[in-house]
Amino acid sequence: MKEDRLDEIDRRILRVLSTDARISNQKLSECVNLSPTPCWNRVRALENSGVIAEYVTILDQRALGFPDTVIIEVTLDRHDDEIFQRFGDSLAELPEVMEAYLVTGEYDYLIKVAVAGTEGYERFLREKLYKIPGIRHSRSTFTLRCLKRVHSVLP
Questions:
Q1: Which distant-in-sequence residues (6+ apart) come within 8 Å of 117 by Cβ?
Q2: In this structure, are residues 31 and 108 in contact, taking their beta carbons and an 8 Å threshold?
Q3: Is 87 left (phi over 0), alpha (psi -120 to 50) or beta?
Q4: Fewer beta carbons below 10 Å: N end or C end of the chain?
Q5: Burial of 116 by CB count in 10 Å (0-12 exposed, 13-18 middle, 19+ buried)?
Q6: pLDDT of residue 11
Q7: Is 21 helix (H, G, I), strand (E, B) or coil?
Q8: pTM
Q9: pLDDT over threshold 60, residue 142
Q10: Is the distance from CB of 72 to CB of 113 less than 8 angstroms?
Q11: H or E stretch including 44?
Q12: Closest to 113 in 3D by CA, of 98, 94, 129, 135
């Protein structure tokens, strides 16, 4: 199912699920003004087509003791497939890394990490990030406040 094939009912289903993925089918069907069986069939079709990629639990980093978010820009010393693969695999193993992107521009990677203050960030740099081979340069920015956070976009 392509995005352009979504009708208004599909979009309503997706809006509700994007705010409460644990909603019962009965409640969901009431929210979108559809009977339960057709609602369930539409959700399954959205899942099977890949429009709904997965259901996740979003954890509160502050409650887990990691209240600070740092954005790190990283430049690698080489630009070949092997170094990109190795660096990406290493980032994937670090639990503090919440998101990582290979990007265009001055830096090669944009990385979002959760840490416990400047001490936690220093420890992350020394003990984890800087142990990954191939880093030439990095620049870090502590975030002050999240102004908007969504996990997907629904036009």
A1: 67, 68
A2: no
A3: alpha
A4: C
A5: middle
A6: 95
A7: coil
A8: 0.84
A9: yes
A10: yes
A11: helix 36-48
A12: 98
In this structure, are residues 51 and 6 in contact, taking their beta carbons and an 8 Å threshold? Answer: yes
Do 83 and 76 form a contact (C-beta atoms < 8 A)?
A: yes
Residue indicated by tokens 């990582």? 100
Q: What are the CA-CA distances from residue 124 to residues 59, 62, 85 (Å)?
A: 20, 17, 21
Q: How large is the average pLDDT for residues 103-130?
A: 97
Give residue-wise pLDDT tens across range 14-52: 999 999 999 999 999 999 999 999 999 999 999 999 999
Domains parsed from the chain with CATH numbers: 3-48 (1.10.10.10), 68-142 (3.30.70.920)
Q: How far apart are CA 42 and CA 1, in angstroms?
A: 11
